[in-house]
Each structure stands twice: as structure tokens, then as C-alpha cells.
Amino acid sequence: MDYSLEVKDLSKRYNTFALNNVSFNLKPGSIMGFIGENGAGKSTTIKSILNLIHRDHGEIKIFGLDNIKSEKEIRQNIGIVFDECRFHDTLYAKDVDLFLSKIYKNWDSKLYSHYLEQFKLPAKKYIKEFSRGMKMKLSIAAALSHNPQLLLLDEPTSGLDPIVRTEILDVFLEFIQDEKNSILMSSHITGDLEKIADYITFIHEGKIELSESKDDIIYSYGILKCKQSDFSQIDIKDIISYRKNSFGYEVLVTNKAKLSRKYPNYIIDSASLEDIMLFYSKGVQKC
Ligand SMILES: Nc1ncnc2c1ncn2[C@@H]1O[C@H](COP(=O)(O)OP(=O)(O)OP(=O)(O)O)[C@@H](O)[C@H]1O
């Protein structure tokens, strides 16, 4: 199996929004960060992958199987975490064990207890008395304890402090160590993805702008800075997007190394994932 997840030409139209031929692939043994501004289409894509919403067009394969025809079989092998805890407030963490053992064939109560211990979650305390961080850790413990091969995570670390986030990111890194498992994780915390993701897929207004190795993106993208009077010297073909400020222009470019030679008089700084998102969202796009 070449890919754990293949999304091809996925389209979905709502009244005022459309996913437009979304395509990307996720390799086993890797983490893909799924980024984009609010309303870009991340959750709509993840819900389509899980067949929670009806798509208009496209094909989705998970472990090489069609996500609709083989939904039941696939679900047994996927761990899901949304940004809200899906367990009822009046349950104890230990009740989740009983409940999910009836749903998942490969449910591993020992592994679940191990995660409760690792995350310092009390087995006998109402979930309504858990903090947000505790609820997220409970969701992650539950998502991992039926030994899935794919984790689909929609903002799993939102609203959590850096210590809890680091703890959770370590668990995700451990999860993919066997080279069979993989993770698709949407997040606005691009710094987290810079730490753990192997690939980044960036969606903007329902369209995939890039889906590449994180290292290639960080190596290739840059921000060229020039004075207002020099802006016309920049070849329009080299401009992805630009922003004007009081000092001059900032231009998002790719192929930083080549352009540093082409424009030796201008500074080209490295671009972070946040910069890239910002330029696509707030900059003026030229090509
Ligand atoms: N059931 C629905 N009916 C109509 N429009 C919807 C529905 N669900 C989502 N949308 C719209 O689709 C667009 C994309 O929403 P989506 O939740 O996929 O974005 P997102 O990238 O996950 O955003 P966020 O980062 O804020 O979670 C938004 O404009 C949203 O209003």
C-alpha cells in the first residue's frame, strides 16, 4: 500500500462555500499538517473523509479502500479526535473503556489504562469535572486504544497550554514510529506542525495551494524585501503574493536559493508556515 489516505478531486458545495477539487495523499509512517485560515475547508475535508457529509464529486481511499463502500471496515482502523470531547459529561473515564470495547474489535483495555496513567487522568471522576486539556487527552487516549493505523485529528491541541501540547505531540510522534501508522492533523498552531509534521497541506478558500514535504516548503519559500521604488524590478513570474508596508514591499517567493542569486541586492528571509498562510490570505496574489 503506497498511501494510507488518498483524496482525489474532492468537491463539495455549500451555499456560500465550495471545496474545489481537493487532492492530496498521505504516506504510512508520516504526519501531515493540514493548515488554512478559519473557514478554508479543513473540517469539511475531514468530514468528507469520514463520510460524515455527502460529497458532490471525487474519490477517497483509506488503506486502498473506498471510504464509502468499506466504511465499516475502515472505521475500525481509524482514530478520530475533534476539538470537542465526544463523551457524555456524566460518564467516568473508566466507562469509556466499557463503551468503546463494544464498538471496536481491537479495543485494548490495558492500553487505554496505560494512556490514562500516562496522561494522569483519574478513572473515576465525571468527565464534566475534567479541564479542557484533560478532555482532549481523554479523547486522544480513546482514539489510540483500538490500535488504529490512521489518526484523523481536527484541531486536537487547540486551547491547550504548551506543556500539555508538547506531551500530546510526543504521543503522536511515538504513534508513527512503526512506519505503518499515519496522522492527518488540522491545526492553527503552525509551530506545533513545524515541530512534528513531515508534510504540510495548505488549503485556502476550498482549494489546495500546496501539499509538500515540510522541509521542502521551509527550504524553498522566502520573503523578499525591497523598497517601493524597487518593486517594479521584481519579475512578476517570481511573485506568489505581496504585501505593502511603510518601508516598502514584502514578496512571497519560492525557490529562495535561486532567487537569492537572481536578486543579489535584496534580502530574502525564510518564511514560516504562518507567513505563507498570511501571504495567501492577506497578500495580493499575482500568479
Ligand atoms: N453544514 C453546512 N452548511 C453550510 N455551510 C457550511 C456547513 N458546514 C460548513 N460550512 C461552510 O463551509 C466553509 C468551510 O468550513 P470548515 O468548517 O470546513 O472550515 P475550517 O477550515 O475547518 O475552519 P475552522 O478553522 O474555522 O475550523 C465555511 O464557510 C462554513 O461556513
Automatic annotation (TrEMBL):
Record SMART domains: AAA (SM00382)
Record carries keyword Oxidoreductase: no
Domain of life: Bacteria
Keywords: ATP-binding, Nucleotide-binding, Transport
GO terms assigned for molecular function: ATP binding; ATP hydrolysis activity
Domain ABC transporter: 5-230
PANTHER family: ABC TRANSPORTER ATP-BINDING COMPONENT (PTHR42939:SF3), ABC TRANSPORTER ATP-BINDING PROTEIN ALBC-RELATED (PTHR42939)
Designated name of the protein: ABC transporter
Lineage per the UniProt record: Bacteria, Bacillati, Bacillota, Clostridia, Lachnospirales
